[in-house]
Amino acid sequence: MHEREHPLHSMSSYLGSFPPRLPRRIIEEWLPRRATVLDPFCGSGTTLVEASISGRRPIGADLNPLAIALSQAKLAHVTVSDLEFRLNDLAHGFRGETEIDEFPELLRPIFHPRTLAQLCYLQRSLVEANPEDIFLRGCILGIMHGKHRKDGSTAYLSVDMPNTFSMSPAYVKRFVEERGLQQPPVDVFGKLRERCRWLLRTGSLRERPDSLVVAADGAQIHKALTRQGISSVGGIITSPPYLGILRYGAFNWIRLWFLGFQQGEVDRHLDGTDSLDVYLSFMATFLDSAAHLLRPGAIAALVIGDVVENGQHLSLGERVWEELRGVAPFELARLEADDYDSTSKTTRVWGQERRGRATPGDRILVLRRRRIAGSARRRSNRPRGAPKALGGELPENRLGSSADC
């Protein structure tokens, strides 16, 4: 981990996450001090943590319940002593393997019966409004499963798994059987104590009662924040959904079980697409909504992953601006490539042969809100197929979860 990175960034892996230095650099260069920083596709909360560290108010939104849980956990103001007191209280109430209730049979090859019983107990016992419980929930999600160390020890709760993303249930079952793996009798409470001390070894984030993470559709973010009494923000830093690449539910079905969700319902809710036309229409709708929250001169910095279309490398960030310039109420402030170390990007889960198909690189598209008189925003030259502004309830189908921010 970079010496400037807060340990909280390592709470949990998250598909497509970008390095903390990226939002940190954008914040330092483009946003005024004490500005409110909005990430409408907040993922695991990288942008929110960096905003909080910088002294700015973080606001995040996402449709992925895993993203909401992790972002809320990272922003929770807790201490190691309070967490240990809460863990002792929870451990005192645990009654053994009788705590196991209904759970997918697919979990049996992954967890020892006692470990599974503790997870079932904690799943029922953690309270939504308690900051310690919010933090502990995030810690559990980060250590649910993963690869054991070479000496056989582990920081995780599961059998020795290939990585921290969920392979398909059939693959997991075959993987365990072919290797004759045994589920270790891991004590969840003990692992949580270790994890809390590690994540908070430099202290928690400063307390910010005005920080906010909401379950909301980023494409209609101004409506969601209006319901929270927020009419404007100082700037937006986000990584919009990838173009038809990631299935967050399928790659996180074990974690989603702990949160009480099914992978299918999450992926249907997020509704990714391989269509470039629909993606551009989505971006037009998002920028129109974002413009409602930004004053003239404020910026929206978008980290957009490149893709490979029909064998050709496509700079999606450049294509978005080509299609939406003159349509979205923004002007171009900067468009640049982010030359990060590709080995640090979380899409490496696919391996070398598939990594390029996911995101050969990222573009940072920085847009500045321009002043538009009257009703110019209600335009007739919306890109072909772009959805009109939606009112009331969130739409059934939409792109809605970040690559992370």
What is the CATH-assigned architecture of the largest domain? 3-Layer(aba) Sandwich
According to DSSP, the number of beta strands is 9
**Rg, Cα atoms, Å:** 21 Å
Uncertain parts: 341-357, 375-400
Task: Please characterize this protein's 3D structure.
There is one protein chain. By secondary structure, the chain is α/β, with parallel strands linked by helices. The chain folds into two domains: 7-75 and 211-369, Rossmann fold, CATH 3.40.50.150; 80-199, no CATH class. Helix content is 36%, strand content 12%. It contains 14 helices and nine strands. It has helices spanning 21-30, 46-53, 65-75, 80-93, 113-125, 131-143, 169-179, 188-199, 221-227, 253-259, 263-270, 276-291, 316-324, 352-358, and strands spanning 36-39, 57-62, 212-215, 235-238, 299-305, 307-309, 312-314, 330-338, 362-369. It has a seven-stranded mixed sheet with strand order 3-2-1-4-5-9-8, with helices on both faces. Strands 6-7 form a two-stranded antiparallel ribbon. Helix 3 (65-75) crosses helix 6, helix 4 (80-93) packs antiparallel against helix 8 (188-199) and helix 6 crosses helix 8 (188-199). The longest helix is centred in the last third of the chain and has 16 residues, at 276-291. Mean pLDDT is 85; it is low at 341-357 and 375-400.
SSE arrangement:
Layout: H1 21-30, E1 36-39, H2 46-53, E2 57-62, H3 65-75, H4 80-93, H5 113-125, H6 131-143, H7 169-179, H8 188-199, E3 212-215, H9 221-227, E4 235-238, H10 253-259, H11 263-270, H12 276-291, E5 299-305, E6 307-309, E7 312-314, H13 316-324, E8 330-338, H14 352-358, E9 362-369
Parallel strand pairs: 1-2, 1-4, 2-3, 4-5
Antiparallel strand pairs: 5-9, 6-7, 8-9
Helix pairs in contact: 3-6, 4-8, 6-8
